[in-house]
């Protein structure tokens, strides 16, 4: 098993084969730090999932009734139960798409597309990189067997 520690300006990662455990530094911008990590490791495709405490977070939601995006900005530290998403390459650019889910006031759940967030203490991610054609073909979804919602 191939294992090593990789360190950047805003993060530290423990690499095991195609998996990484990435810890972001306190006060790091989550999006910027993860993009720095992805660039440093030359990752073009993968899945990411994490937990942690963040502050100064902005989430984006789609309001289907008006077909427009709404934004919510949170200033207080908040425990995020799930930050998950994917990394993909589109027209030569690396794209990072993350969604966040957390408990909010009065036992409600808040979830949306993560636009910005600042680490407050500790935030960690498990990352699985798919960087070659063999990995992509092996992990590719078979859309013919995927269940779809039915309107019936």
UniProtKB/TrEMBL annotation:
Protein name per UniProt: DNA-binding protein
Source organism of the structure: Chryseobacterium paridis
GO molecular function, a single term: DNA binding
Database matches in InterPro entries: PPC_dom
Family matches, as PROSITE patterns: PPC
Record-linked PANTHER family: DNA-BINDING PROTEIN, PROTEIN, PUTATIVE-RELATED
Key words of the record: DNA-binding
Positions of the PPC domain: 14-152
Domain of life according to the entry: Bacteria
Gene3D superfamilies hit by this protein: Hypothetical protein, similar to alpha- acetolactate decarboxylase, domain 2
One matching Pfam family: PCC
């Amino acid at each position: 098993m191939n294992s090593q520690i990789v360190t950047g300006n805003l993060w530290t990662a423990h690499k095991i084969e195609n998996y990484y455990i990435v810890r972001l530094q306190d006060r790091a911008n989550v999006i910027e730090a993860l993009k720095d990590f992805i660039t440093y490791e030359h990752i073009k495709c993968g899945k990411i999932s994490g937990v942690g405490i963040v502050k100064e977070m902005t989430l984006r939601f789609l309001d289907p009734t008006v077909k427009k995006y709404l934004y919510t900005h949170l200033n207080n530290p908040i425990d995020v139960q799930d930050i998950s998403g994917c990394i993909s390459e589109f027209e030569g650019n690396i794209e990072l798409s993350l969604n966040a889910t957390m408990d909010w006031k009065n036992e409600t759940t808040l979830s949306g597309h993560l636009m910005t967030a600042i680490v407050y203490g500790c935030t960690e991610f498990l990352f699985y990189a798919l960087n070659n054609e063999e990995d992509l073909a092996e992990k590719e979804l078979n859309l013919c067997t995927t269940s779809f919602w039915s309107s019936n």
